[in-house]
């Protein structure tokens, strides 16, 4: 991909995507980034070699950036995404694909804020993109064809696995993979707390929990890995692990995870409605 690529907003998620994109071979000179603060712009330019503009210095930074762009990634928070679309709409190339990474902002909301016919792709990435182990779900808008969807795939291919899904499944994806890293971190916290309860030093507890969860994640990343099969491989009959798993089942851990995911998906749908009312 050699056409100009623009990131409007570049927080931790945007920088993770940017890092993967550059690692996959996109030349830095093909990328322009806009952020609010000049200090952040300078940091990104120095770290990645891209062109970085600060809107606090130039209020027209976003519209200047998107001129001539083939791909525009919207990296601001959900509450500001539709307003950003309205701001840049008139300056976009008709065939430029606009990719949103904002949770809960629907394709209809994005398309309604842009010029008629503008290709739009909605994405749900997650934070492991930062280490090249992310997963991204893409939903194409009504004017995004195979070429635009392929361009969106190229943006994320260097950072993880990319899946195509219907938009109605985006809230579910948000609840599983979007929020999911926090679930794994929460598990590691609980494991470390249990280790401290056994009398282990907090520093030792942190290492045990962190490396165990990280190592298990790497095993899951192996080709063909299945979580149930891996779990059974560690669970010897009448052994210690079997007792732990039986206790988790008895205490309803699978149901707790399901309830949490449902709450996350419901909140995503609620945010969409709140944004529609603005």
TrEMBL record:
Record's keyword terms, sorted: Amino-acid biosynthesis, Cytoplasm, NADP, Oxidoreductase, Proline biosynthesis
UniProt xrefs under Pfam families: F420_oxidored (PF03807), P5CR_dimer (PF14748)
Catalytic activity: L-proline + NADP(+) = (S)-1-pyrroline-5-carboxylate + NADPH + 2 H(+); L-proline + NAD(+) = (S)-1-pyrroline-5-carboxylate + NADH + 2 H(+)
Domain Pyrroline-5-carboxylate reductase catalytic N-terminal: 4-103
EC number: 1.5.1.2
Main location group: cytoplasm
Transmembrane segments annotated in the record for this chain: none
Protein origin, superkingdom: Bacteria
Residues of the Pyrroline-5-carboxylate reductase dimerisation domain: 167-270
Protein localization: Cytoplasm
Protein name per UniProt: Pyrroline-5-carboxylate reductase
